[in-house]
Predict the 3D structure of the following.
Amino acid sequence: QVQVVESGGALVQPGGSLRLSCAASGTVPGIYAMRWYREAPGQQREFVGEITTSGATRYRDSVRGRFTISTDNAKNTVWLQMVDLIPADTAVYYCNFRGVRDVWGQGTQVTVSS
């Protein structure tokens, strides 16, 4: 069974940058997209962005232009590059590989604070 693990979360000052990684232990059957979500305390998990296996990307409005999703050719690793971070970006970030079934990671904490 394929598992995914996120890493790279940290405490960062406003205006700073972080790069999150998400590695799958194998190829997700039928994979068609890889997504990032985030969940802030007391709030519902929300969609952050997506990259499809064809390379198309889309983002939620509040992160567009600041966040960039990329993946490797094997589609086993996905990254989330975040710049110009703001306190509202504070959340646990989860990656999600979408295929025959969804595979979720355990999350990585991002805290933006001075």
The CA atoms of residues 53 and 75 lie 7 Å apart. The chain is about 0% helix and 50% strand. The longest strand covers residues 91-98.
